[in-house]
DNA sequence: TGTGTACTCTTTAGCATTGAAATTTATCTT
DNA sequence: AAGATAAATTTCAATGCTAAAGAGTACACA
């Protein structure tokens, strides 16, 4: 899991960091750098916060990711290990071990698919679903607090802008030189 | 390092995901969820892109992080291992090993501080600085492409909004229940 | 029916990370 | 000056990840 550790301290402020970049690299567009750096820092801080919350519930951030994927798949909350692995960006091997741990903790069950015995079905237990719900409640409180300074209009604009950026990275692939070129 | 792996595939669209969340969790504010999910996805995609670029230069994303921290510290590009560790959010132990590798590759040097022999000084080599510069050039091209759909005004608004969110997480600490409360 | 091929999951070996203990050097107290 | 305490780094054992090899099952096609 990415950058979930706590205490990010003695870090320069965003402004100091951008000033330092400009000193060392003249071609830098400070506006672009501000967006990119803020994005990355924000994400790191948020992951730390989520990590603290899930830890308080006795699960790891990694386990929460699995619970989320299963719930999002909809009732009856079943997925195969390789689907889960693709969804979370893990190798199937890592998924095997992660599921091992979660079965031992009673968050999911693992059984063979009787109609195709190559396949394995991972299914959320009621306990797993309950954990997800508790984590979800904490997460929404945190997220609402995070955004409390933004008016509904500002939220709309922000969501719109981020979605546009996301579409750009998702529908484009960097070429050999790293340039983003449209696929459609 | 966080979520730097490639191929994030067979993922539901952002819209599908939010619809699924609303089905499973009625209290969800779709506007908030849109922002938070887009942020997290965007960051993941960007890390994948950066990873591809640094890999093309023969360094890992982890090594790039160290190079960035050293350059940002300004000439003469020296830092102690524990400062680097704090800056990158790693344990000192991990820093020791990472520096080992980078010394072996000639990106940095490690020597004892003669004025206080407990301390160690990690210093960027000219080769390390050159690698940073190459990575920086690729990164700025990617970042400019990423933001190409946003007008200068939109960029300003976006940067401003993200900075505001960042200030909120940085100056606030979640309490036992996970609420963000101001420190100032 | 039998064999080849493809697919899914697990096992194995290697690597980066963490947390805790150990090591080395500096500083404080008397 | 001696001994205790503190600080910075490294060493060590355990964890979770990746990549690649292995095992088991289903399906196609002769």
From TrEMBL, chains A, B:
<dbReference type="InterPro" id="IPR000835">
    <property type="entry name" value="HTH_MarR-typ"/>
</dbReference>
<dbReference type="Pfam" id="PF01047">
    <property type="entry name" value="MarR"/>
</dbReference>
<feature type="domain" description="HTH marR-type">
    <location>
        <begin position="32"/>
        <end position="167"/>
    </location>
</feature>
<dbReference type="InterPro" id="IPR011991">
    <property type="entry name" value="ArsR-like_HTH"/>
</dbReference>
<dbReference type="GO" id="GO:0003700">
    <property type="term" value="F:DNA-binding transcription factor activity"/>
</dbReference>
<dbReference type="InterPro" id="IPR036390">
    <property type="entry name" value="WH_DNA-bd_sf"/>
</dbReference>
<protein>
    <submittedName>
        <fullName>Transcriptional regulator</fullName>
    </submittedName>
</protein>
<dbReference type="InterPro" id="IPR019885">
    <property type="entry name" value="Tscrpt_reg_HTH_AsnC-type_CS"/>
</dbReference>
<dbReference type="GO" id="GO:0006950">
    <property type="term" value="P:response to stress"/>
</dbReference>
<dbReference type="InterPro" id="IPR039422">
    <property type="entry name" value="MarR/SlyA-like"/>
</dbReference>
<dbReference type="InterPro" id="IPR036388">
    <property type="entry name" value="WH-like_DNA-bd_sf"/>
</dbReference>
């Amino acid at each position: 899991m990415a950058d979930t550790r706590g205490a990010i301290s003695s870090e320069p402020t965003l402004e100091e960091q951008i000033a330092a970049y400009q000193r060392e690299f003249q071609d830098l567009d400070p506006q672009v750098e501000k967006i990119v750096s803020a994005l990355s820092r924000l994400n790191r801080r948020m992951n730390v916060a989520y990590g603290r919350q899930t830890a308080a519930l006795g699960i790891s951030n990694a386990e929460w990711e699995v619970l989320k994927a299963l719930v999002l798949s909809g009732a009856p909350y079943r997925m195969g290990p390789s689907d889960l692995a693709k969804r979370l960006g893990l190798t199937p091997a890592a998924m095997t071990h992660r599921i091992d741990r979660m079965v031992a903790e009673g968050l999911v069950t693992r059984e063979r698919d009787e109609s195709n015995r190559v396949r394995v079905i991972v299914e959320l237990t009621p306990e797993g679903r309950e954990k997800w719900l508790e984590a979800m409640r904490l997460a929404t409180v945190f997220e609402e607090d995070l955004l409390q300074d933004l008016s509904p209009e500002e939220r709309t604009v922000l969501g719109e802008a981020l979605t546009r950026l996301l579409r750009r990275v998702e529908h484009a692939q960097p070429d050999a030189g790293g340039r983003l070129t449209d696929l459609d």
